[in-house]
Amino acid sequence: MQNAITVPADLLHRQLTTVFTAWGMAEEHADTAATIMVETDLSGVDSHGIGMLPHYQKLLREGRLDPRATPIILRDNGVAVLVDGQKAIGHVPAHFATELAIEKAREHGIGVAAVTNSNHYGAAGWYARMAAEEGMICISLTNSSHLLVPVNGTEPALGTNPIAFSAPTRDPERPVLLDMATTTVAYGKVSIARRAGKPLPPGWAINEEGGPELDSARASDARRLAPLGGTREQGAHKGYGLALMVEILCATLTGAGSGQLRTGHFFLVLNPAAFRDREGFQADLEDLLARLRGNAPADPASPVIIPGDPEHDTTVERQRDGIPMVQTLVEEVRAVCEESGAAFILRS
Amino acid sequence: MQNAITVPADLLHRQLTTVFTAWGMAEEHADTAATIMVETDLSGVDSHGIGMLPHYQKLLREGRLDPRATPIILRDNGVAVLVDGQKAIGHVPAHFATELAIEKAREHGIGVAAVTNSNHYGAAGWYARMAAEEGMICISLTNSSHLLVPVNGTEPALGTNPIAFSAPTRDPERPVLLDMATTTVAYGKVSIARRAGKPLPPGWAINEEGGPELDSARASDARRLAPLGGTREQGAHKGYGLALMVEILCATLTGAGSGQLRTGHFFLVLNPAAFRDREGFQADLEDLLARLRGNAPADPASPVIIPGDPEHDTTVERQRDGIPMVQTLVEEVRAVCEESGAAFILRS
Hints:
By secondary structure, the first copy, chain A, is an alpha+beta fold.
């Protein structure tokens, strides 16, 4: 690993709000985005926390991100709502929309909030977790920049279009929490292989002829990822189909559009109590999870886990020890601060 | 291919209703189930049409399927509804629930219908297509008998738990229609490899140590399938996570339960017109699909397709030429007729 420092969560939060308010974001919005990013870093999803800050700065510089924007409700049918993100940083409209969907689910049993005209919203799973903390089941989706090459094709045509799903367990700190790209791997894993000078397994990236790209340097430059499944024989048409589903719900249904840097989100929130008594739901869910954890493991040192377990463990660890940041990232944050006229406070 | 006959769709429909009414099913229910099964066979999903009849007969014999049952509404919150399938053949409560969800989506923009106490409902995609024909977007899910081995585990603990998704295009005959197991392959593909005496690729089945099972005969007996992705490196934790999502929505949220032959379903229906003007939605969807179809293909003879294309093409072909049935299946249907006291009319 590169030379790294560890940063306490509250310091990282302060650094982020310092930058965001320097950009002109309202304090409340700065706090929302910073909280989401820091909690994402705490959970170990390093690719979607402060690591995205240089990208957001670039969007700001190019006029694609409006720091002063406040999301508005475009349509509200009682249960379904469409939010216009007004080109804010995606976290702000996504947080607003998830709150609305939770409210609606509390009242009607379900709520759907779709968001148009937004930007990158960080980790899809954060919003699902937010709903789970309120006792709700949630699906959180976003489209994203084109990296996925459809089966039979050669050109990136869809994003890594993640699917996040949460369900509340009796422990509010520990929901079932799936957060997955619909590509075999997120782009970050290709970069990691490149830095390590390692080849890629087949099924991760696609070469210009549509076959497997095993050279991590070439794959990293070309930015062509395989859908989950990797190859047709291994079910890549399923990953492609799931990515298309996410695109239709986030880009087409919302009107956000399907081009590069056109971003929409989709949140479905379900109140289990609308379907059955909550106690029965919780008991059955605990039984299901216990049965899965009890599955005889191939290797006793690696038991069957539940989606969300690794992120929960990392959160506990990083709340105690701080968030590791490689030196390169620290310098990138310093550069963002300089460009923004914000104080750099991560280290003196 | 085995000795096969081709059967016109209407003859197959009559054969099925003859059996179902002999079982004691109401005419309307017999017609619903037969229609769904025949249309599934027409679309080429042979594993989920009349091929399931011997299994349904077995459920009937064991008292797990009540042919006289009529599904009832257990809870109705206006937008979310819970249906009790009363142990009917799954098609009947699933069709009833999808109709309810479509009605609710027409009124409120969205509708969710969950079903408990049901049975195998055939192809998940059929219900999604039904909603698409009404201009709706739909997600159709069901849990199913345990075949999927969770990552790190050795024992089947979840079903192949399919995810179907549909979106209506301008051509009502041709919705976007994804219908996928959350395992790398459905069990039928393992059986086909066994009959052909071929080994399996890694990533399809799991051996008793939790590693890849390449012997198709052993895999077919052991009934341990790998989650979509196949191996951890190729993203099998994602297929496992998706299967768990389906299990929670179909088995836990509904109260159907998660054991063998405990079956529930989940249908989400969205009216695009609740989010934006329908014309804008349709135009953007056509653009997206055209862009995907226009992706430069690796092999010009195999262009990029849209989920649902192969099923659409097969339907056109089989509506014209009839539905192929291998001799073994014809004999199985004959045996079902004998056991049920129903006339066998497929061939004299």
